[in-house]
Write a structure and sequence with these properties.
By secondary structure, the chain is α+β, with helices and mostly antiparallel strands. It is about 55% helix and about 20% strand. Helix 2 runs antiparallel to helix 3.
């Protein structure tokens, strides 16, 4: 089953049970289904393959590693103080 067929299938199932939702919309470009429940809260369901998810995670890890090395380089060359380096490194960890 392709991602588009799976997305359409889930959308159909949700529409069959639409009494639980105020609104259900499908965004084919972003591969998402937006749900608005009776309490006006909105939820977003994102469909991506495991491979896509792992690729994003690897890319994010690589970027964090490069940024971390850059911050340590700034500290090594006495461009920033260790306290500032720690702040930057903690922010990079949260990426």
């Amino acid at each position: 089953m392709t991602k588009d067929k799976l997305k359409d299938y889930i959308f159909e199932i949700l529409n069959e049970n639409d009494s639980n939702f105020k609104d259900i919309s499908l965004d084919d470009i972003a591969d998402t289904i937006r749900l608005k429940v009776q309490s006006d809260e909105e939820y977003l369901l994102k469909l991506e393959s495991r491979e896509e998810s792992e690729m994003k995670h690897r890319k994010k890890s690589y970027i964090s590693l490069v940024l971390g090395i850059a911050v340590l380089g700034l500290f090594d060359f006495d461009i920033i103080e260790w306290e500032d380096a720690e702040i930057f490194l903690k922010k990079i960890q949260k990426l």
